[in-house]
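Recall that a protein's primary structure is simply its ordered list of amino acids. Everything else, from secondary elements to tertiary packing, is in principle encoded there. The following example makes that idea concrete.
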Amino acid sequence: MLIGRDAEIAAVGDALDRARLVTITGPGGVGKTSLALAAVERRSEPHVTALLAPLEPGGLKEQVAGASGFSAYAKMAEALQREPRLIILDNCEHIVGAAVRLAEGFIALNPGIRVLATSREPLNVDGEYVIRLRPLPVDGFDSPGVELFRQAAARRGVNLRDAEADIIDLCRRLDGLPLALELAAARSSSMTAAEMAANLAARLDVLSSPRRSVPDRHQSLAAAIAWSYALLDPGKQRLLNRLAVFPGPFTAEMAGYVMGRPAAIIDDLSALVEQSLLVFEPVAGRSWYRLLDTIRTFAAERLAVSGEALAVEQRLITHLAERSRKLSELSREASAEVPHELRGSFRTIRWAVERCLERDDSPSRAYSLISPLWWMEDVGYQAEVAAVIRAVLDKWTEPSADRGLLLGILAAMERIAGRRAEAESAARSALEQPDGMGAAHAHRTLGQFARSDANWAQALEHFNTGAALARSFNDPAIAIEAAMHGAITKGREGDVAGAIQELEELRREGERYPLSHAWVSLFLAWVTMWEDPLRARSIVTDVLDVAEAVNNWWAIATSHVHLAVSSMLSGELSEAADHLQISLHEYDRVRNRTDITLALDVAAALFARRSEFETARRTAATSAVYETSALGTYEKELLNRVGPVPDADDAAPLSIAEIGRKLRSKQDIERHSVATDAANRFQQQGDLWNLTYAGTSVQMPDSKGLGDLHTLIGAAGREIPAMDLMGARVVESDLGGAVDDEARQQVQARIEDLEAVIGDAEMANDPHRAERARVELDSLLQYVAESYGLAGRPRPQGDTAERARSAVTARIRSAIRKIEDLHPALGKHLDRSVSTGRFCCYDPAEPTRWSL
């Protein structure tokens, strides 16, 4: 939470207007990261956030590029030269020298680039503007430090109204450090403020004496962590120590193996989450955990002192190697579990490979760790994967089938990263190794290069050979994918009917393999788009529903490209722009160079259709930069039908972000919006509401929440007081006085939903979405805290405005949940676009026209 920092936010904004490098310094736990993100969110320029805490000095540029969504640093630098951004470098203190070089490199790329760094010490670079962040004031019960503590306690269902003097004393002993206050608040449900202060005072005495040179604030934070640590039983202390071995997120299964008891760990992890010593992050239906950096450092020191650090590391690496072998088996079945797990655990796998390079005599574990990483093609971090593989290949040079597999994966990573010469060299080397799956991967990569050169016969030969090899090694996922590319190549060569027939057969074969089925279905839809657009759209819609459910980025991106073409065929240009925006965003996340060209070609056709010929030419030039796609005759005819496709000539390329903005420019909306009623409708007829969005209509019974939404949509962009939505009158019947069990269950369900949204957003590096969810979550938790005592007894509501806020928030969110059950797309749109509280507002990210 960011409380009492308005002046500091303004200071950061003012500094960024004056200097190109601004560093926020202060002790650990003072809120440097939160301040940086809040300050940036108030600015209009695009920004990139690089979280340096889990990174190491070696290869920092490539690590930052990968974490920022770029396949390689060279690509990031190229993008920044075209479109300067504000770059946040968070947590520089452990790699100051490397961070300085990184910041200076970014600043040298373009005069418009600014860098905002957070560190416990200044970077000491010429021209640096330093903002020293101090702890929150603790000078009364309403002071920012105490207010943060009270709100953190309220999130856990504790409403602190008594013992004001004890609470102020405790917050003072914690020196107003936000992290220390959060840790103390975690115990507020089981201890009084006076008891906490007494325990903390004892720990402060112990920890401050040996380190008199360390500022008191640092000692206070260490004391807060040490005090929370001391309250754990020995088993949980040992668990926390061992969890420090993880450099990134981890699952309960992984945690269980470092403890030596894989099946009995969930309760202990949950206890650490409850005590704010561990962060819980649900992503795509699976639970992930991570340690805050300060707590990880604290625990790592104790792990080192215990003398078991090396044994714990070895146990984890062995488990990761075994798990990677299982993932390799799952990858043969094209299981959606594989990319999800690799996305979450890649940092830890990378760390494990580096430890193997330092300590192992045999390549066995390193080879196993790398074996499933060809899936990173559609996940990201391709340049980092390539660097790790090259390091392993350089250490262990003995020819083998396993070495061939690594070379095949390396070829795929280098291709996605845009390094053709290196990719072709790795593929040729893979073919020279003893028989193995490496050759299948190599032929797949060489086929893609041949196809990009319009060398159809050679491409087809590579794809057919790769598919046959994969089948001989019982790897249906690679076999189906290679055969699929072969069918597409056949279509581009001119045999469209033959391509459709092969894709139909592969689709039936792929029904047992989730991701393979999605791949083939989308390519089949693309080939049939010309002759049977209705069937193509039906296929794509089915794939998209599944892709969104399992968070399959590539399938989501490709589905929206297809839907964009379908929309253009039916004349829905605004809808096509929406689809292309989503597609470009998803492709840009994974840096899939082969497929993003198709999205760019379609975007160029759309701009040409809208008579924006210069933008169309520049978008076509952007597509040409990737040099990884050559369209067949049927595709050119299709795009000319919806376009036409412009000639890039010598036009200057645009950035992906700039193309996205131009797709939905204000001029475009005004030019192409429907002159009569909008396609989206939110209308009441008697006791029913008729809701239409994105071409789908539903009916719902009348409710107060739907009436509120109708009012907010009619005043889009304007904040409306909750009192006004209540009709300037709040009575006990509106709020229920004593809130019933059903309402309580609804609120609890929404709280769980929001926690999941926050986890997804943080893993996807989407701070705006996460913050929007946090605002609502804090509101609901405050509502629960004020409505119920610890034993579940109802509490009377507060002032009229607060009662209005609680009632309106509950009924609007209830209405949105019910809408989402019937119309998921509309529910998601409203969930993202409607903010609630004492003031409510409908403010969609992109203008949306409604007929009311």
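The longest strand covers residues 114-119. Residues 202-219, 666-677, 728-739, 788-799 have pLDDT under 50 and may be disordered.
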